[in-house]
C-alpha cells in the first residue's frame, strides 16, 4: 500500500459517510484506519457498512470520546505495531471531502523534493489559513481564480489544478484536517503531544517539532479539498468554551517552546 489514512470520528455520521465515499471514489492504493471515539451504535453501524466497502481497512472503537489527538495517536500506535506498512501516513478529518488526484499530487511533491516531509491542500471557506480566502495572507503567489466562489467542489478542484498544477510552497505550519506525511516523521519524532488535550494546537506543536528536526512542510496550491471546519467541535463545545481552549493551547505552546505559534511562508528554499 502507498498510504495509511487515519480518520477519527465521533458521531457526525453523514459527514463521515460523505468523506469515506469520496475517499473510495478518488483514491487508490490505501489502507483506511478508522478510529471511532465512542459514537452511538447507530452511527457505528452505518459507518461500518461503508468502511467494509474499502478494500483494506482496520477499525478501533473507543468506549468514550478521547478527542482528536488521542484518537490519531491510537491510529499511529496501530500502524507502529504493523511496522508502518506504507511509505506515507495521512491524517484525514471526517468532515473533509477529497477530490480527484488529491493524494497523487501531494505525494508527488514529496517524491520530487526530499526536503518536504508533510503536505497539505487548499480548502474551502473557513478560518484556517489554508482556506482559499486566506491563503494569500501566507503564500504570496496564491491568487483566487476568477469565479472561484461560484464554482462547485469538482469545478474548484479542476480550476486549482489548471491554475497551479504541482506548484507548492514551503510553510511553517499545516492544519491537520488533511495532511500527508512521510512515515519517517513519526518514527523519528513520535506522536502528537497529548498535553494539548482533545485538540487545538497539536498541529502547531507538531509542525514546530518537525521544523526543529529539519523536516519541512509544504502546501500544494493545486490541490483542493472541502472542509466543514470544526464541525464536531461545534456540537460539543460552545463558542466561549472554544475560545478558552484556544487560549489555553496558545499558552501551552508558548510554555513548551518559548515562542508564540505563527504561520509563514518559508522563502529561499525552492
Q: What would you say this structure looks like, in words?
A:
The chain has 270 residues and is α/β, with parallel strands linked by helices. The protein has a single domain, classed as Spore Coat Polysaccharide Biosynthesis Protein SpsA, Chain A, CATH 3.90.550.10. It contains nine helices and nine strands. It has helices spanning 13-26, 41-51, 67-81, 102-112, 153-164, 184-189, 202-212, 231-236, 239-257; strands spanning 3-9, 30-37, 57-62, 88-92, 96-97, 116-123, 168-171, 178-182, 216-227. Strands 1, 2, 3, 4, 5, 6, 7, 8 and 9 form a nine-stranded mixed β-sheet that branches. It is globular, with a radius of gyration of 17 Å.
Essential attributes:
9 helices; 270 residues; 21% strand; globular; alpha/beta; Spore Coat Polysaccharide Biosynthesis Protein SpsA, Chain A; nine-stranded mixed sheet
